[in-house]
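Students often ask why inverse folding is considered easier than folding. One informal answer: many sequences map to the same fold, so there is more than one right answer. In these notes we will look at a single instance of the problem. The structure comes first.
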C-alpha cells in the first residue's frame, strides 16, 4: 500500500512538472514566431557582405522583402551580390577601420532611409588572422584585428544610432563563442569579448528608447574565417618570423603538432550549414520579441556555452587537453 501511494505521488509530481513545461514551451514558441509587419518599409544595414554570413543574410532578407543595404569591402563582392539579389538591394563599399568611410556610408544611408529611420544594423564584418600563441604575436597584430572586430563595430553603430533610435529598431552584433571562452591566444578572443561588453552596455543604454540590441554567438562554421589552409599558412608565417630563441623554447615538433591538431579540430567542429547563424540573425531583426543572445551551432550549445560557466580550473583542463601534445621546451637562459 505504501509503495502504491509513493508511486501515485511520483506520478502527480511528473504530471505537475509536465503541466508547467508544456505551456512554457508553447508560449515561447508563440513568442518567437511573431514577426514585425511592413518589411517593405524597413531598411537593414549589414557589414561584411562579401562572403559568408553577411552575404547569405543579405540575400535572405532581400527575399523576405526588406530593403537591404549591403556593405562590402571589395568591388567583386558588390558585383556578385547584385547579380544574386533584387533591385531593392543596394551595395556600398565600406572599410570599417576607416572612420571617413564609415561616416560617408552613414550619410548615404541617412539620405536613403529618410524620415523612416534605419530599422536594423548588423555588425558582421570581422577577421580572425593572425592568431596563435600570445608570444608569437606583436602589438600591431592586436591593433589591426581589434580595429576591425571591435572598433569597427563601435564606429559603425555610433554612426547610425540616431537613425536606429528614430525607427525604434535593432542593433545586431556578431560576436562568437570566443567572446565567452578563450581557447587560444591572440587578439581574436579579446576583440570578441569586447563586442560582448559593448553589446551589453548598449542594450542597457538603448532600452529606454525602444531600441533592441542582440548578440549573435556562433560556434565554428565553414567560412573564410575558419579556412583550414588560411589558418595553416598563418601559423607557418608566424613561426617563420619568430626569433630563434622563441623557436627553441617551443621545440621543433610544436609547429607540426599545432598544424595537425588545427586541421583535426576545424574539420571536426566546423559546421557547413551557415543558415543556422543566418536564421538567428534574421530572428533578431524581424521578430517582435528578439532574444538578447543567440548561440548558433551545436558545438556552441553543447560544449562552448557549458564550458563558459565552468570553474576556471575545469575549463582550463578541458582546453589544455585539446592543445598541442608537445609541451613547450623552455630552455634555461
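Output (designed amino acids):
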Amino acid at each position: 500500500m505504501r509503495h502504491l501511494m509513493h508511486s501515485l505521488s511520483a506520478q502527480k509530481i511528473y504530471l505537475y512538472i509536465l503541466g508547467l513545461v508544456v505551456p512554457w514551451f508553447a508560449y515561447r514558441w508563440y513568442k518567437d514566431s511573431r514577426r514585425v509587419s511592413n518589411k517593405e518599409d524597413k531598411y537593414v544595414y549589414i557589414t561584411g557582405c562579401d562572403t559568408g554570413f553577411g552575404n547569405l543574410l543579405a540575400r535572405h532578407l532581400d527575399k523576405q522583402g526588406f530593403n537591404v543595404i549591403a556593405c562590402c569591402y571589395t568591388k567583386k563582392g558588390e558585383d556578385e551580390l547584385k547579380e544574386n539579389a533584387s533591385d531593392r538591394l543596394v551595395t556600398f563599399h565600406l572599410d570599417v577601420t576607416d572612420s571617413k568611410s564609415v561616416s560617408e556610408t552613414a550619410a548615404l544611408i541617412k539620405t536613403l532611409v529618410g524620415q523612416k529611420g534605419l530599422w536594423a544594423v548588423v555588425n558582421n564584418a570581422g577577421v580572425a588572422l593572425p592568431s596563435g600563441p600570445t608570444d608569437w604575436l606583436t602589438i600591431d597584430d592586436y591593433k589591426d584585428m581589434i580595429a576591425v572586430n571591435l572598433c569597427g563595430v563601435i564606429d559603425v553603430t555610433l554612426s547610425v544610432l540616431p537613425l536606429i533610435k528614430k525607427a525604434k529598431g535593432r542593433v545586431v552584433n556578431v560576436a562568437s563563442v570566443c567572446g565567452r571562452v578563450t581557447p587560444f591566444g591572440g587578439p581574436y578572443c579579446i576583440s570578441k569579448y569586447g563586442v560582448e561588453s559593448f553589446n551589453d552596455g548598449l542594450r542597457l543604454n538603448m532600452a529606454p528608447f525602444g531600441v533592441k540590441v542582440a548578440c549573435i554567438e556562433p560556434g565554428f562554421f565553414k567560412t573564410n574565417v575558419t579556412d583550414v589552409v588560411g589558418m595553416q599558412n598563418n601559423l607557418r608565417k608566424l613561426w617563420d618570423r619568430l626569433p630563434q630563441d622563441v623557436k627553441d623554447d617551443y621545440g621543433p615538433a610544436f609547429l607540426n603538432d599545432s598544424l595537425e591538431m588545427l586541421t583535426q579540430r576545424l574539420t571536426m567542429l566546423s559546421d557547413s550549414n551557415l543558415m543556422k547563424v543566418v536564421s538567428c540573425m534574421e530572428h533578431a531583426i524581424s521578430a517582435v520579441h528578439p532574444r538578447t543572445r543567440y548561440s548558433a551551432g551545436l558545438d556552441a550549445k553543447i560544449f562552448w556555452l557549458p564550458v563558459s560557466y565552468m570553474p576556471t580550473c575545469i575549463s582550463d583542463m578541458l582546453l589544455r587537453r585539446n592543445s598541442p601534445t608537445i609541451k613547450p621546451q623552455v630552455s634555461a637562459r
